[in-house]
Automatic annotation (TrEMBL):
Family per record: Belongs to the short-chain dehydrogenases/reductases (SDR) family.
Stated name of the protein: H17B6 dehydrogenase
GO BP terms: steroid metabolic process
Organism annotation: Asarcornis scutulata
Superkingdom assignment: Eukaryota
Cross-referenced Gene3D superfamilies: NAD(P)-binding Rossmann-like Domain
Lineage: Eukaryota, Metazoa, Chordata, Craniata, Vertebrata
The encoding gene: Hsd17b6
One Gene Ontology MF term: oxidoreductase activity
Length: 115
């Protein structure tokens, strides 16, 4: 973004949280997690453990059920970034992005890792 300023190119960053799209809610997406685990070498499965797989799968299911259905939040941000005379540098789309993901990105890496 900063490198392009010298050339008069403005860059806006669209940072969406978790939104409900067809790819997220598809049976294929859910099955891909199971297939990846099934294909993993036994050493990998042993290192991560069944508990890790179950927690990952549970988190994915949680994302599906809590995903924001209002995709217009993202498309409106894109439209504003493209058409505004003074577009913002960053657009946080969705409550989860504004309250968790974006503030987390401003923390020192060690702090963010602990969270």
């Amino acid at each position: 973004r900063r490198e392009l300023l010298d050339f008069g190119v403005k860059v806006s960053i669209i940072e969406p949280g978790c939104f409900g799209t067809n790819i997220l809610d598809s049976a294929e997406a859910k099955q891909s997690i199971v297939r990846a685990w099934d294909r993993a070498p036994s050493e990998v499965k042993q290192e991560y453990g069944q508990q890790y797989f179950q927690a990952y799968n549970s988190n994915f299911q949680h994302f599906i059920t809590t995903a924001n259905p209002k995709l217009s939040l993202v498309t409106n941000a894109m439209e504003h970034a493209l058409t505004a005379k003074y577009p913002r540098t960053r657009y946080g789309c969705g409550l989860d992005a504004r309250l968790f993901y974006i503030p987390l990105s401003y923390l020192p890496s060690a702090w963010a890792d602990r969270l």
